[in-house]
């Protein structure tokens, strides 16, 4: 991509000086700090001019946005055919036809090798990862200095028909160790904190219930109490809160590990017993329920229907049951247990695909690793509703450096400006149609399914067409790293 000079007002003498300094940069310029796992030769050199930092990108116009062709994941838990937002966006983005019999689970936007994005014409198409390595200025100096010449975040849309696995994502130290030990399972050495923003009603399990709720589980779900054992059950039920439950973590870890490590025959028998009991108690007799099941009991029956005699049916009682309305979000830190149950969402995370699973999945499970890595914090997850930047844009900012997400809901015939930022962004049009312009470039028509990589320092002008309001999301590096 050509770059356009912007420093038209610089005096000729200064221009000559800059030119000379640039030509000597390979010899005299200090190198940008090289983060771990980054190829040092890929780092761009920086220049120092008259006592303050200077870089070639500051002397040139920003690289123009790139239209992306993105990847889809057809995991079994995805919604099928036209029922899937992922399928519809993938069809419009790639031109591929939707197969009504296939699940369309995740739409990936970014540079991860498990689902890369591409740019360029059919004859000259390259991965976004390769293009960024060849044009590191697109990331901005601070991003390159902190993470190297690759995107630090991965952007997704999920369409969930059946529950995902009970899982957790490792922190950086554990991710490096797991990647060294089993690189075919744990694909990269990075951590994977993440955030989900609901597009529809979105249900999930996340984090451990409180000690009082755990007592209720052991009293109200005799199948779990039977597995845990009478002594352990009675000990927990008789615990008293004195300045907080000082041994809560050890208690939760012991009971949860015992459950997750139980043999398959024991789990099969107890899940079957649980199902039969709940179905019997939920029968209608003369138009009156014997007992109306709780939401968590209804969830257990749903999970049993999807995964049969899986330990995750019982494990679900240990985790908070969260329901998000459209526009609400939750974030999940490293080593926290969770499982998405149903609905559609925007998801953003650190650029990783590391997942440690232990239930509700036919995939590889690693119970010892999962049970040893969890924090065992007992708290209901914080629900984010975003901060409104202007009448049309709401920002969701998790406590992680790698990413933040903006939601833009632009009514018909309205316009909005995304101010330049010193880092990269990815934009996706979820619904609607309009015009997009950067700087002095010509306007470009945009519509549902369009995805753009926007290099650092671009100002984006967006306008919605008549009768075509736009629903757009932008992912980018967390603004706090720019000071």
UniProtKB/TrEMBL annotation:
Q: Which residues form the active site?
A: 357
Name the GO terms of the biological process aspect. carbohydrate metabolic process; GDP-mannose biosynthetic process
- Where's the Phosphomannose isomerase type I C-terminal domain? 396-440
Q: Which cofactor does it need?
A: Zn(2+)
Q: Which GO terms describe its cellular component?
A: cytosol
Alphabetized GO MF terms: mannose-6-phosphate isomerase activity; zinc ion binding
- Report the residue ranges that make up the Phosphomannose isomerase type I helical insertion domain in this protein: 230-319
Per the record, the pathway is: Nucleotide-sugar biosynthesis; GDP-alpha-D-mannose biosynthesis; alpha-D-mannose 1-phosphate from D-fructose 6-phosphate: step 1/2
Binding, Zn(2+) = 167, 169, 194, 338
Residues forming coiled coils? none
Q: Which residues form the Phosphomannose isomerase type I catalytic domain?
A: 66-208
Query: What reaction gets catalysed by this protein?
Result: D-mannose 6-phosphate = D-fructose 6-phosphate
**UniProt entry keywords in alphabetical sequence:** Isomerase, Metal-binding, Zinc
| KW Zinc (keyword) present | yes
Q: Does the keyword Metal-binding apply?
A: yes
Q: Which Enzyme Commission number(s) are on file for it?
A: 5.3.1.8
Q: Name one Pfam family in it.
A: PMI_typeI_C
Cofactor binding note of this UniProt entry:
Binds 1 zinc ion per subunit.
Looking at the record's lineage, which domain of life comes first?
Eukaryota
Similarity field: Belongs to the mannose-6-phosphate isomerase type 1 family.
Indicate what this protein is called per its UniProt record. Mannose-6-phosphate isomerase
Organism (species): Zingiber officinale
Query: Which lineage do the record's taxonomy fields give for this organism?
Result: Eukaryota, Viridiplantae, Streptophyta, Embryophyta, Tracheophyta
